[in-house]
Specification:
The chain is α/β, with parallel strands linked by helices. The chain has three domains: about 10-130, P-loop containing nucleotide triphosphate hydrolases (Rossmann fold), CATH 3.40.50; about 145-275, Winged helix-like DNA-binding domain superfamily/Winged helix DNA-binding domain (Arc Repressor Mutant, subunit A, Orthogonal Bundle), CATH 1.10.10; about 290-385. The chain is built from 16 helices and 13 strands. The chain has helices at about 10-20, 30-40, 50-60, 60-65, 85-95, 110-120, 145-150, 155-175, 180-190, 200-210, 210-225, 255-260, 265-270, 275-290, 340-345, 380-385, and strands at about 20-25, 45, 70-75, 100-105, 125-130, 230, 245-250, 300-305, 310-315, 320-325, 350-360, 370, 375-380. The strands form three sheets. It has a six-stranded mixed β-sheet with strand order 8-9-10-11-13-12. The protein is globular and about 65 Å long.
Length: about 400
């Protein structure tokens, strides 16, 4: 498979024209290095992961930087965060020379600390996610969007097994001193079974025999390394008593499908997790769109104490809200619009649009009005119209 253009490319090029440095963050193996190499083919490339390179940089950072020809791609810079200070000095000596330092990293929290302390105002921070349905038609709930899985779907199970092991050994251990990684691996499997549910830390702690603070710490690890999406409840009550717990989704539907043991579309369609997996797929796609178009990451859900629930609330700016129900079906009926209509009637401060997003395509389901003010869309159409509905 040839290179797949990424939607963030235009914003990346624009940033390189205005900032001396760019920091491209994102979950491991989402395509950061490939993107930078493609967009900046003349840039020197250095992987800051080889032990010999790490030792060289750590022992003589100035000498290392002197040996480089800019523009340069410094890959996995979280391994040597002290390098930020020395790069800052060089940027300050020539602040008008844009697009010279192209940095990547997989662990957002450690990176952000270094950026806050050393590089504030000197670089553009951008986030990349796995491939979106707007970038390639080969993504889907079962395989997700990791580029290597999209390219080689026949070996997805082997790839995910290796990915999880690498993630545990590198990212998890570098963030927290977890003694028994097998328990953390069980935690990931248990969390997969709660995909799309509201967070209940006690429910997660009991089967694993760990404390609630430990679960909080582990959830934080998954979030800062980009493995999960935490969707908070919408903050306005519209005259209702709200549920306050956030909902959790894995960022990549292929990874959570693997953790759940779902290895075929036949198994997917029969699985009790099918609806939650589709819901999480929609959540991930919305966030990918927002990130690639450099919009604020804003995704909420709504649920009150009386049981009224709408899957997603997406602020549109200028007093507008998009209400979204995700239905893992190709057959749509008007009753699916009831939660959207009930919530809309309670909202008087905003202009609302309501959408039911389904798992078919524009050819397998009629894109029509299901009820007054409620339209149906497939995922790709929803994204292409996300801020114009």
């Amino acid at each position: 498979m040839n290179y797949i253009p990424r939607n963030i490319t235009a914003k990346l090029k624009e940033a390189a024209r205005h900032f001396p440095a760019i920091l491209l963050t994102g979950v491991r193996q989402c395509g950061k290095t490939t993107l930078l190499k493609h967009v900046f083919p003349k840039a020197q490339y250095v992987l800051l992961e080889d032990p010999d390179v790490v030792y060289r940089v750590s022992s003589d950072p100035r000498g290392f930087l002197d040996s480089l020809n800019t523009p340069v791609i410094l890959d996995e810079i979280q391994n040597i965060p002290e390098l930020f200070r020395y790069i800052r000095t060089r940027i300050d000596a020539d602040p008008e020379n844009a697009g010279q330092w192209l940095l990547t990293g997989s662990q957002e929290a450690p990176l952000m600390q270094g950026v806050t302390e050393s590089m504030a105002g000197r670089l553009a921070i951008m986030q990349l996610y796995p491939l979106s349905v707007l970038e390639t038609g080969k993504t889907g709930i079962l395989q997700g969007g990791f580029p290597e899985v999209v390219k080689k779907s026949a070996i997805a199970d082997i790839w995910f097994q290796s990915y999880i092991q690498t993630y545990l050994e590198r990212d998890v251990r570098s963030i927290a001193a977890i003694k028994d990684l097998s328990v953390f691996r069980r935690f990931m499997g248990l969390l997969a079974s709660r995909h799309g549910n509201m967070m209940n830390k006690t429910d997660l702690a009991a089967p694993l025999g760990v404390s609630v603070p430990t679960i909080s710490s582990w959830l934080n690890i998954l979030e800062i390394t980009g493995q999960i999406i935490v969707v908070p409840p919408y903050f306005e009550n519209f005259g209702k008593r709200l549920v306050k717990s956030p909902k959790l989704y894995f960022t990549d539907s292929g990874l959570v499908s693997y953790l759940l043991g779902i290895d075929s579309m036949e198994a997917m369609l029969k699985s009790p997790f099918h609806g939650a997996l589709f819901e999480g797929f929609v959540a991930s796609e919305v966030i990918k769109y927002q990130a690639s178009h450099y919009r604020r990451i804003e995704l909420y859900y709504f649920r009150d104490k009386q049981g009224l629930e709408v899957d997603f609330v997406v602020p549109q700016g200028a007093g507008k809200l998009l209400l979204v129900e995700a239905k893992a079906t190709k057959t749509l009926v008007p009753s699916m619009a009831r939660p959207l209509n009930r919530l809309t009637k309670s909202i008087d401060r905003y202009q609302t649009q309501s959408v039911i997003v389904h798992c078919g395509t524009s050819n397998t389901a009629v894109e029509r009005v299901l009820a007054p003010g409620v339209v149906a869309r497939d995922v790709k159409t929803l994204l292409s119209e996300l801020y114009s509905l």
